[in-house]
Amino acid sequence: MGLKPDHWIRKMALEHRMIEPFVDRQVRDGVISYGLSSYGYDIRVADEFKIFQPEITAAKLSDVQCAYVAGVLDAQGQIGYISGSTGRPSLALIFACENRSLIEGLHAIIGTGRLRDAGDGKCELVVSKAADVQYILSQVWPYLSQRRDMATRALAELKSAKSIIVDPKNFDADSFTDFKGDVCLIPPNSFALSRTVEYFRIPRSVLTVCVGKSTYARCGIIVNVTPFEPEWEGYVTLEISNTTPLPARIYANEGIAQVLFFEADEECEISYADKKGKYQAQRTIMLPRL
Question: At what angle do helices 63-73 and 100-110 cross, to 10 degrees?
């Protein structure tokens, strides 16, 4: 069995539709790279995600963590106007609280804005850049609001000593929140499912191995994909884990992992198509099946 080079991948993609759409070079300017490489192909993640956000996840939070999340969101956040550098008023988000550590924590989660003393013992986080305001309203605020609701429910769950187990044989689809967009925010210590932009058709004598890209791996974001078996075809379901204690951004339509192609010396007796595999020809993000 040998590792296949770029010219073999190109030939199989163009003549046998092994990869569609196919990018015949590595695109890297301003994006996380994707396309053909020396001995592999860098796949892209589509803009469809299923974010793992079950209510019971919050039940694993400590009382202190729950109080922190709820406290941040109850820090009297408001939308108002402030004077810009030109003297003209501009739209801004202002979060004020007497507990400076809560505001500093919110600042770290949001990743933008500036801290200032507001008098009366209060600290303020002011976000005035238009793009940042839009980002918070569309991405961060819904996430934080969800975490607050989850924290409230988690305290009730903890008090009632209720527990739920993630079961691969009986997985609860309601554990996921659907999201579609250019940037997906994965909660701390959680994961998301997505799919590739590319549709694959694997030859009978070929098996692939898929590994995550170093750009994400160095940020604590791990991509897991099982091998593409002989004669399997479909969009690849991707599992993207955020191992960090902070929210993580995933950029749609950019590189996410690299596929390596190995060709066997002989063809197998039974291929994935022969045994009518349960994930054959999948066109959407597939949840666990028996």
Answer: 80
Q: Which domains can be identified in the chain, with CATH numbers?
A: 2-52+169-263 (2.70.40.10), 55-160 (3.10.28)
Residues annotated as part of the active site = 239
Tell me the C-alpha distance between 115 and 96, whole Å.
10
Q: What is the pLDDT of residues 85-128, one digit of tens each?
A: 555 555 667 777 777 777 777 777 777 888 888 777 778 888 87
Query: How many residues are present in the chain?
Result: 290
Report CA 114 to chain centroid distance, whole Å.
Answer: 27
Residues 119 and 123: their CA atoms lie apart, in Å, by 8
Instruction: Report the predicted TM-score, pTM, of the whole model to 2 decimal places.
Output: 0.66
**Cis geometry, peptide bond prior to residue 21 (ω within 30 degrees of 0):** yes
To the nearest 10°, the Cα dihedral for 108, 111, 117, 123? -50
Q: Which two tokens stand for residue 79?
A: 């939308």
Give 235 or 179, the one with higher predicted confidence: 235
